[in-house]
Write a structure and sequence with these properties.
Layout: H1 4-18, H2 23-30, H3 34-41, H4 49-59, H5 63-81
């Protein structure tokens, strides 16, 4: 099952690391505790919209960009885990007993 909070955390962590910033720097800038930000990045906590806005602001990212990236990741995961449907009226081959 896809966990939205895990995908969101991955996107936030990747963007922070791309900027070569530490959890401590971003947490101070976002006025969020270091431990809580770490839990959000690991997908252990659900971020409120206010908290998410603050983290995005600290990273200099539009919230819409972060949510768009999360949406793409969720869609990719859904495509990989979608069940394969057989065409209607096609029976699976029966193995013969030898």
């Amino acid at each position: 099952m896809i966990l939205l909070r895990r995908e969101l955390g991955d996107v936030l962590r990747e963007r922070r690391q791309r900027q070569r910033r530490t959890l401590r720097e971003v947490s101070a800038s976002a006025s969020v505790s270091l431990g809580y930000l770490s839990e959000v990045e690991r997908g252990e906590k659900e971020a409120s919209s206010e908290l998410l806005g603050s983290i995005c602001g600290a990273l200099g990212l539009p919230l819409s960009e972060v949510l768009s990236q999360v949406s793409v990741r969720v869609a990719e995961t859904e495509a990989l885990t979608a069940p394969v449907q057989l065409p209607v009226g096609v029976a699976a081959p029966i193995a013969s007993a030898a």
